[in-house]
């Protein structure tokens, strides 16, 4: 018994060293019970006690996540290799479950742990380091580059198909990229149809079922607008002389009684400051006045006092009060567009003929989502619609207005300047001598004009002799030559001429000629002045077996309508203004 107790006291110390020592002592106890040499066993335990740290690292072979210790001395581990353990004395008993055998079997496991650690470091490194752009993207695939990805590579622009209709109903299919603007489409159609590029062409968004239309701004993208249109809607290609007319004559578009700033300063505001007030984003212009608003779901209209600001269109719930508690938001400018109503007042039971509508710009709109408004007169309606465009787009409209002029200036530096057809560049000339001279005297210029008129008259008489000598049957050329002109529209009704003038912009000098409905031998000149449409009858007069045409009861006579139009393009005469812009129709 005493010898057994001595053995247990000798084996008690390794039991508190480590788990590996415990397992080894457990096996040693069973070996000692089998009469194994105790002294050799104790020596082995003493030699293994100096490698406790190695057993703590390498002996936990059931945990693969234990990191490997890297040591540079010769007693431990070097690099990624496991150092061999010292040899035990030759007289020890070799147990297949000894720690030495376990350590040798665990060597591949530690190598796998090192490889996994290196892989984790490689995965973390790109995210921790700053991304360096690849200077040669075409030499590597997007998947192999941490910076380049398929979503970041520039994709080729997709083409879209749009259909544009002329005023005679003929359509043309145009393939456009996604970033093509309305001005680009107009320039393309002008080039394809050999039209005069005077920067007055517009692409019109027309909704036939709703009875609405508006001219797209030059900077607007065509494809997104088409995406919000219904299948019954379409694009129209037509003239619009009033698109930027408010930059030339702002006082005609903004009456002083409707501009709040003008009322505060008693109306003494120059034109330039009036436009700057609208274009400057830091200013707060305001249009105010009475408008009729159609009630939702009903045919009745209600007269309200409204205010148009940069933040939106408001109406007062209490008379003409401007207090915030009395203002109700009707529409936001950023998410809406202003349209002209083309169906007339009978369809909506409107109180006047001067209707316009505010329609949401995103998505397809139903009838109940429209804000139907009606003004007292044409000048008020034009003021509201123009101010809506200015407050919404601001400086973009001015850039659209200036860009064609800048382009013409750049082109004129390399090409021969085109002579203007305005009255300021035309003077009376005398070509009777070898060289021409400018006639400075007004009296002499008038006599030269009379002489030129007699020359044309004699020439037309000779044509009559060759054609039809009877005064009741004028020459075939003078009777039909005007039908080849763009400003002549034949036998159209009075209402149709009104509609055409309104569609192409009610600017001063916009005109057309048509056959008279009351007199088969006469013609009618339809002219716009101060946003009002007026009609003047052109009557035939007989003199010296020759038929002439006149606007002033025979005081000024012309052999054909072309001479009449050319004269009133240079002279106002009895008209309220000169003829400036011919109302034309485009046919694809």
From TrEMBL:
<feature type="domain" description="SH2">
    <location>
        <begin position="487"/>
        <end position="583"/>
    </location>
</feature>
<dbReference type="GO" id="GO:0008286">
    <property type="term" value="P:insulin receptor signaling pathway"/>
</dbReference>
<feature type="domain" description="Ras-associating">
    <location>
        <begin position="158"/>
        <end position="242"/>
    </location>
</feature>
<dbReference type="InterPro" id="IPR039665">
    <property type="entry name" value="PH_APBB1IP"/>
</dbReference>
<protein>
    <submittedName>
        <fullName>Growth factor receptor-bound protein 10-like</fullName>
    </submittedName>
</protein>
<feature type="region of interest" description="Disordered">
    <location>
        <begin position="65"/>
        <end position="108"/>
    </location>
</feature>
<dbReference type="Pfam" id="PF00017">
    <property type="entry name" value="SH2"/>
</dbReference>
<dbReference type="InterPro" id="IPR000159">
    <property type="entry name" value="RA_dom"/>
</dbReference>
<dbReference type="InterPro" id="IPR035037">
    <property type="entry name" value="Grb10_SH2"/>
</dbReference>
<keyword id="KW-0597">Phosphoprotein</keyword>
<dbReference type="GO" id="GO:0046627">
    <property type="term" value="P:negative regulation of insulin receptor signaling pathway"/>
</dbReference>
<dbReference type="InterPro" id="IPR000980">
    <property type="entry name" value="SH2"/>
</dbReference>
<dbReference type="InterPro" id="IPR001849">
    <property type="entry name" value="PH_domain"/>
</dbReference>
<dbReference type="InterPro" id="IPR036860">
    <property type="entry name" value="SH2_dom_sf"/>
</dbReference>
<dbReference type="Pfam" id="PF00169">
    <property type="entry name" value="PH"/>
</dbReference>
<keyword id="KW-0727">SH2 domain</keyword>
<dbReference type="GO" id="GO:0030178">
    <property type="term" value="P:negative regulation of Wnt signaling pathway"/>
</dbReference>
<dbReference type="InterPro" id="IPR011993">
    <property type="entry name" value="PH-like_dom_sf"/>
</dbReference>
<dbReference type="Pfam" id="PF08947">
    <property type="entry name" value="BPS"/>
</dbReference>
<dbReference type="InterPro" id="IPR039664">
    <property type="entry name" value="GRB/APBB1IP"/>
</dbReference>
<dbReference type="InterPro" id="IPR015042">
    <property type="entry name" value="BPS-dom"/>
</dbReference>
<dbReference type="Pfam" id="PF21989">
    <property type="entry name" value="RA_2"/>
</dbReference>
<comment type="similarity">
    <text>Belongs to the GRB7/10/14 family.</text>
</comment>
<feature type="domain" description="PH">
    <location>
        <begin position="284"/>
        <end position="393"/>
    </location>
</feature>
<dbReference type="InterPro" id="IPR029071">
    <property type="entry name" value="Ubiquitin-like_domsf"/>
</dbReference>
<dbReference type="GO" id="GO:0005737">
    <property type="term" value="C:cytoplasm"/>
</dbReference>
<keyword id="KW-0963">Cytoplasm</keyword>
<feature type="compositionally biased region" description="Polar residues">
    <location>
        <begin position="88"/>
        <end position="101"/>
    </location>
</feature>
<dbReference type="GO" id="GO:0005158">
    <property type="term" value="F:insulin receptor binding"/>
</dbReference>
